[in-house]
């Protein structure tokens, strides 16, 4: 993590000695903007708790949708990743002009938790109950955002929504529950499905996928350099009964990596990469993300904003590249994915005026259909990183529709 509190762009030049070293150094091109916001611990605690989930970069997200510092108005908002509804509750409370709120989550546990939190807040906050706000919490994958908006209000699908948030990855509720199989530290079934109705579990991949496919996900989704050796060990372990718990997998990784580079704890990093690879494959996360970014942008009103928080480099690369494709009208790779239904508002003439007080906007990238408001992603303040280790890898990128 960079220590500078201000904007940073550091290119680490390769040492001349070894080829692999220089390759690694060239890959280490850090480009980001450290948030300059005053971190408000009380505010974070108001909307999050350690038993469920602490919202990441809450103040920064609030700035993106802040109506007081720009001509931006938030009359409709979709939270694609409800989780424990920390971001959602803060947005709803801060925006009395909000008329339609839609929250989505594919996980029934998160959906139920978020629904009860939002309903409790609406009932107990006089300012919220006196407004005309209609709140809809739906158990849905965010790739179906168009159906979700259409289900709530068909007209909204045509006019577009003013704000959309995606806070990717898992909530603490999911990681901390051993029954979900996401954590390498708590023994549990090898599940890893965000949507319990999904047909594929991590154990299916480990026990029955072709060896080359197992190797491919370890390499591509885990960026694991030792992927070939692990692939072979996984396939060999099938002869001894295969994998049934996260502990079985951890034991194999621990046994395979204790003597390789990375020190005595090297296996933990390998395990984190293997778990990440399996989770991405089980939930088809990268393909879903790319298509959903297009779908979300289609659903924005002219001037509407989409904010995305990602937690690892594979996700961030997709957000960065897809935003560039979107503003330059480059269609998605698989155009057949486009769903039936509305495609957002017809593009109108829209002049982009960053609000005078929008100090978080540093450098923008303009295209014919949108503006990327974060040429470099925004990362959390050092103070927030200290309090919530999860936000150390968080990157916030924002796009605005023309
Ligand atoms: C990091 S948490 C969100 C936390 C939330 N912002 C808060 O403040 O509490 C991510 C949530 O997204 C959900 N999720 C992940 N992929 C999804 C998808 N494709 N569609 C809908 N929800 C998804 C997960 O189930 C999880 O509850």
From TrEMBL:
Top-level taxon in the UniProt lineage: Eukaryota
InterPro entries: RsmH, SAM-dep_MeTrfase_MraW_recog, SAM-dependent_MTases_sf
Residue segments, region Disordered: 1-22
Molecular function as annotated in GO: rRNA (cytosine-N4-)-methyltransferase activity
Keywords for the protein's UniProt record, in alphabetical order: Methyltransferase, S-adenosyl-L-methionine, Transferase
Gene Ontology terms describing biological process: rRNA base methylation
NCBIfam families: 16S rRNA (cytosine(1402)-N(4))-methyltransferase RsmH (TIGR00006)
HAMAP family linked to this entry: 16SrRNA_methyltr_H
Homology family: Belongs to the methyltransferase superfamily. RsmH family.
Identification of the protein by name: Uncharacterized protein
Organism name: Chenopodium quinoa
